[in-house]
């Protein structure tokens, strides 16, 4: 949904800046992402620091990158304790999205690429671009959500619930 760049703010803090593509659909997704995460704060969720319309999102910088690099790169290694801790962090983040927010948030694309690891290897869930808040309003807008291989069978019957995130997390 866009490119991500590393940046440094005037105060010296590092940030990740996501530039979204320029199209009508993407502007709708940009607005959805800002609305979905502007008021959500949890230690296991990547924090939105700000945004610049029409297409820049500024996030906290997460030093160790995405979980997929640590799972699938032969040069990197996570021991059992680290993997266990990461799994708990992801579960805590999902629990907060599903039950701790004022309005339930469904991520709908939990996968290793959307889990970032900070300098202490604490996991943070990222990429809320197509997240859903509250109840499903239109099935058509949900058809494109998810990554093959991480999508629950319930998608075939449009049974949209927090169980989809739980399934993807388990994969």
From TrEMBL:
EC number per UniProt: 2.7.11.1
Catalyzed reaction equations: L-threonyl-[protein] + ATP = O-phospho-L-threonyl-[protein] + ADP + H(+); L-seryl-[protein] + ATP = O-phospho-L-seryl-[protein] + ADP + H(+)
Gene3D superfamilies: Phosphorylase Kinase, domain 1, Transferase(Phosphotransferase) domain 1
Domain of life where this protein originates: Eukaryota
Keywords assigned: ATP-binding, Kinase, Nucleotide-binding, Serine/threonine-protein kinase, Signal, Transferase
Domain Protein kinase: 1-171
GO molecular function: ATP binding; protein serine/threonine kinase activity
The protein, known as: non-specific serine/threonine protein kinase
Species annotation: Selaginella moellendorffii (Spikemoss)
Lineage of producing organism: Eukaryota, Viridiplantae, Streptophyta, Embryophyta, Tracheophyta
């Amino acid at each position: 949904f866009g490119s991500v760049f590393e940046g440094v703010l005037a105060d010296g803090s590092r940030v990740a800046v996501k530039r979204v593509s320029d199209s009508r659909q993407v502007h709708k997704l940009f607005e959805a992402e800002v609305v979905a995460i502007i008021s959500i704060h949890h230690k296991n969720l990547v924090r939105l620091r700000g945004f610049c319309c029409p297409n820049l999102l500024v996030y906290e910088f997460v030093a160790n990158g995405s979980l997929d690099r640590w799972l699938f790169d032969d040069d990197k290694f996570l021991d059992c304790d680290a993997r266990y801790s990461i799994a708990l962090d992801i579960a805590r983040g999902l629990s907060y999205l599903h039950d701790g927010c004022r309005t339930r948030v469904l991520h709908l694309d939990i996968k290793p690429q959307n889990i970032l690891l900070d300098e202490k290897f604490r996991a943070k869930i990222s990429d809320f671009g197509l997240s859903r808040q509250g109840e499903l309003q239109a099935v058509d807008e949900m058809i494109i959500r998810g990554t093959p291989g991480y999508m629950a069978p319930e998608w075939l019957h449009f049974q949209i619930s927090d169980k989809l995130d739980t399934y993807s997390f388990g994969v």
